[in-house]
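Service request form, structural biology core

Requester: graduate student, group of Dr. S.
Request type: structure prediction, single chain
Budget code: on file
Notes: please return the result as structure tokens.

Sequence provided:
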Amino acid sequence: MNERVLVTGGTGKTGQQVASQLALRGIEARVATRDPSSANQVRFDWGDATTYGPALEGVGAVYLVAPTDQTEQLSAMHPFLKRAVLQVPGRLVLLSASSLEAGGPMMGEVHAWLDAHAPLWTVLRPSWFMQNFTTQHLHSILHEGCVYSATGDGRVPFIDAADIAAVAVEALTSSALPSSEHVLTGPEALTYAEAADAISARIGRPVRHCRLTVDALADRYAGSGIPRSYALTLAGMDEAIAQGSEDRITLEVERITGRPANSLASFLKGQSALD
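Core staff response, request fulfilled:
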């Protein structure tokens, strides 16, 4: 492959890790962003086709993170994808989610498109990120001692974004993997109450799972500025968890990278945001 990878979503949870891990292998990561501020970044906007050519120049593979400000991801990404499959000699790697099947909504549509049109592709379908506890849940953890969800007693095999990135890097740098999807999980399926206990042990003070109804969670999301329709979609994912949709563990991280996935307790130890 060409020793250059375009990383869309390069300032996000997995994109930063992908870029860093590529650099450790001596592979240039070209980070796509609307507002480039360093030499390894390039201006890129899904809605501006004039940014596609410079972003793709000399690129051997692409890490795809869908635009987060839209729910019709395939419509937003399609013009770029059509160009990428013609210009990029290597693999297109899409970050999707364990809850989204091929042909389903959002990234599921992009997944199906890649399957139909890309010569070499990988779709990563990770479970919920451990990093959520140190970002969107952080304020309520530190100031209220609460992790809010509508998941009930449903279990989630939380995964470290670094492990997702490690699988992505293997896919981006090797042609040996067949085109396929990979459901990625951490090593244990935990309830949110059990996750709260792990956080409590880490920070040395009580943290509990504060249970909400699906409607109340949607209201909470909408109150933070998320569009109501998307807030309902997100809250519905919690309802699915309560019904057992995420209660599974796979060994894909270890199979592809050669090392076991990180545990939540181990992840929390290194998180200075919790101090």
